[in-house]
Amino acid sequence: MKELLTRAISGIVYVILLIVSMYWENALLIVLYIFGLITLAEFNKLIKLNALLITASIFTFLYFGFWYWCMIHNSNTGTNEAIQILLVITIFVNLILIKDLFTEKKIPLFESKRYIATTFYLSSGFVFMFLIANYLNTFTPLLLLGSFILVWVNDSFAYLIGKNFGKQKLFPSISPKKTVEGFLGGLFFACVSSYFISVYVDTLGFTSWLILAIIISVFGTIGDLIESKFKRQAQVKDSGVIMPGHGGLLDRLDSIIFTAPFIYLFLRILSYVS
């Protein structure tokens, strides 16, 4: 009971901090940056990379570089091209991680080319979270909040349905508790939630939110499995201890970090066709 209460309190504090920060652009900028530094430190420890100063410097350069370019300088000259280059590289690295998840016993980026993992798996994820919240250079925090809500709904119902009705294991060698029934349950309720989000958030229509729900459910689950494989290679249960009852911050953000580039890609495609 005490552990459940501790888990609930730390989870509520995390959610409140995130939601409150979305009322003010600079607050969200700083909160995402701090979250990025914490998860980067956890990930460095996970992959045994003793170069936090270097990886944090790269993250800071990318994060505030794109912030200045998009929001302060506010120029289209080179901005779209830079974002597209980062997007292509990030998605390419993520696709390699997906391939390694299903075909390799160990993820090679865990032991070699670790700077690629810290830069284009983790750091880029926070850059794209910021870009989602500033879609088309306009502060649109509800887009990011809606994405987080879909992640939370998917994770919560995948856990509840998997625990109570799950029989067929999804990926037992990596995450023994995940089930096919849980995955489908999370996907279903994320799709249902997309309707209610579209009703209260007029930024996108229902069809767009429904597609985002599918993207988030599928790639969020894959992102969680990839982080689980990283932890198995490191032989640890959690990425950190900063959130009592939950583990590390990376354990809570792994889905959205991995999914953010795919969400942004969909939004870019949507802006071209609409």
Shape: globular
Category from helices, strands and their pairing: mainly alpha
- Quick one: how many beta strands? 2
Order of strands, main sheet, comes to 1-2
Distance between the termini: 50 Å
**Number of H/I helices:** 9
Radius of gyration: 18 Å
Strand coverage percent: under 5%
- Series of secondary-structure elements, N-terminal to C-terminal: HHHHHHEEHHH
The description of the largest β-sheet is:
2 strands, antiparallel
The averaged pLDDT comes out at: 88
Total number of distinct structural domains: 1
Estimate percent helicity. Answer: over 70%
Uncertain runs are: none
Draw up the topology in text.
Blueprint: H1 2-21, H2 25-46, H3 52-72, H4 79-103, H5 114-133, H6 141-165, E1 169-171, E2 175-179, H7 180-200, H8 206-234, H9 249-273
Antiparallel strand pairs: 1-2
Helix pairs in contact: 1-2, 2-3, 2-5, 3-5, 4-5, 4-9, 5-6, 5-9, 6-7, 6-8, 7-8, 8-9
